[in-house]
Amino acid sequence: MNKALLPMPIHTAVLLLTWLLLNDFSIGHLLLGSLLAVLIPWLVAPLSDPQAPVRKPGKALVYALIVLWDILRSNIEVAILVMRPNRSLRPALLALPLDIQGDLPQALLASTISLTPGTVSMDFSEDRRWLYIHALHVTDEQALLRSIKERYEAPLKEIFAC
Amino acid sequence: MTLYEWFIAALLVIGGLFTLIGALGMVKLPDLYTRLHAPTKATTMGIGCILLASMLMRLDRNEGFGIQELVISLFLFITAPVSAYMIAKAAMHLRVPLQPGSDPHRLLEKARDQQPPQ
């Protein structure tokens, strides 16, 4: 495949498919979709950084399912916390030591933390070895940090082999 | 009403309830940082339920598979953590105070300067 013409072949395919699914199929939309699917990657390819490749796609799928389940759980947990009186809340700011490195794995970890039980990522330290987390309700800081490391960081580390 | 329609109705009610609780959290939680939790979570769930109901309804009426709903939920899951992160970062730089007692180790100063905790 010609690298100069189609710099991001997977993105091109996904874009065309999405365009056809969002609009009703017709020759006009096929042409317009193809045009956009070639032009957009061509425009944005220079902006993309090289990222760590996914080494274990199967593990990534399992991870996505775990996170989806945890989102469900965390929604119910946060809803209950919100309904309870404010004085029973114990919010806390925590520092999570990071083992994984690389932009994409760390961004995924930070997003996962924001979407799951009672925690929001706040910022990284400059050397990217610490992630600051705000938790809505903490009873045991060490247990929370440990569970994040075991449940999310360890699988991400395996998926990206970093 | 068929059982299927009852199920869709139940999803809409649950979705509405979670969105309401999310909005309520925005009003009643004690500081900006705790208020961040309500819209990033409760609301994602609420909108997820409503979109699922919409997808099931379309399937029932043979109006095809609801790809729009899938795209909406995907964008929601991608943008919610990013916007929460940006708001938290902005709040730290503007020195928005934490609720007393929630930062015993004085990490907020370190987090703002992006320094390691020790």
Automatic annotation (TrEMBL), chain A:
The chain crosses the membrane at residues 6-22, 29-48, 60-83. One of its GO terms (molecular function) is monoatomic cation transmembrane transporter activity. Keywords: Cell membrane, Membrane, Transmembrane, Transmembrane helix. InterPro entries: Cation_antiport_E. The keyword Membrane applies. It is a multi-pass membrane protein. GO terms for cellular component: plasma membrane. It is found in: Cell membrane. The keyword Lipoprotein does not apply. NCBIfam families: PRK08965.1-2. Belongs to the CPA3 antiporters (TC 2.A.63) subunit E family. This is Na+/H+ antiporter subunit E. It comes from Parathalassolituus penaei.
Automatic annotation (TrEMBL), chain B:
NCBIfam families: CPA3_mnhG_phaG, PRK12674.1-2, PRK12674.1-5. The chain crosses the membrane at residues 6-27, 39-59, 65-88. Coiled coil: none annotated. GO terms for molecular function: sodium:proton antiporter activity. Pfam families: PhaG_MnhG_YufB (PF03334). Keywords: Membrane, Transmembrane, Transmembrane helix. The keyword Zinc does not apply. It comes from Parathalassolituus penaei. InterPro entries: PhaG_MnhG_YufB. The keyword Iron-sulfur does not apply. This is Na+/H+ antiporter subunit G.
